[in-house]
Amino acid sequence: MEQQHRNSRRRSATLAAGLLLFLAALGPSPAHGAVELDEMFTFNAVLQQGGEVPVFGTADDGDRVIVRFQEHVVEGVVKDGRWRAVLPSLTPGGPYTLEVTGTSSHTVHNLFVGEVWVCAGQSNMQWSVFRSKNSGAAMIAPENRRLHFYNVAREPADEPKYSNSSTWSVGSAATISNFSAVGYYFGRELAAATEVPIGLINCSHYLSTTEAWVQKKTLESNPALKPIVDDTLPGRKDPLAPGTLFNGMVSPIAQYAVRGVICYEGDNASKTAAFYDKLFAAQIADWRRAWGKPELPFLFVQVAPAKPPGSLANAPNLALIREAQARVWENTPNTAMIVSTDYGDAYSMHPAEKEPIGKRLALAARAIAYGESLPYSGPVYKSHAVINDHIVVAFDRAGDGLKKTGDRLLGFTLAGDDGQFQPAEALIVGPAVLVKSEKVPQPRHVRYAWADFPVCNLYNSFDLPAVPFRTDVPNAASSPSEK
Question: Is the pTM value of this prediction over 0.85?
């Protein structure tokens, strides 16, 4: 009996060995990983209406991926382990269901179609609703039901990433509380104007520099910007280092279809103030390339008024940065600039009143991205003329006329050939301002709101503040075309 058991075990071992030899002769079996859907396509997500919408994820080369959404069925293309399928123009509304099938299947419910915007920048964009003024009223606004939020994980990286761990959430007191205040107020106004779901992607990082949001290779290819890279210690992966936030936060979301970008940054740019226009223009161009949209609307806020430690009256860094931002607006199509001189905090770079900024960005979006005939900018310097002992400044974008708050018009200074600027009296005359000073009997140059923390009060008839300017530089700021 025992001998029979031994013989049986020998036969089993022989069969097993034979089977292994047979399988080895066939060669290694193909290893197929599951078809995965990118983490941006989750419950409560908003997809962009009115244009092509990529859906994407990971798969093995050779896998077949089918995407079904609304009445559309499209097939994905897999390359180097990543797949991408493009849906045609989608109908706004929801909720809808997204189905992805391949070597594995995914079904995502409660997706919506509407308008999607990226909320980008530094700490003034990251600043939460809870910490902003009048936050209680904000969190119970009726428009909130149309808002959906996605917070990009704040993860600097030295190489481009393809995914970012986060999920979408729908507007509620709890989710609004910790979301970007500027982004929220912008989205609330947009929801009221468009009456479609609004998706807001918060891609902001406190203390970051602008160069962190630009690809390192872009900086290296520009002689004016290359020193930023040369002066950075190798191996740095923090939110101050060139390219780190583009790699870690922008790259993972750049395939996702969006309408445009709102941006609030520049307050950490004191070291790059002299060439900030080139740096910021490089960021806009880089982001537009990343999304494959050369005309992607890019709307930004001028640096908030403040009194940084060591601020110099004759060389205010924040004023230089605002001037650089104005040049970018002037020279870059499909952009808009929001002035914030009337909502600052002398003792902080982070003013708590964010609602007016969000509202002004929404006006700009409606004008630039949606083509509505709406004013979104305050008065912009057009020209000036020296007449005896005074200067007359003409403005574009004055609306039905210029106006001031308070009894006197503030914020203007004059200088003669000596370049010493003195406070001046200013008087509104139609779409122009007459400026004079007893201390400057022969004026040559005029400035408005030229300070880190300007005290100024010139508006147009739409209650939008005037853009700061100075005429004592070559190619002084002029009005961007009505775009």
Answer: yes
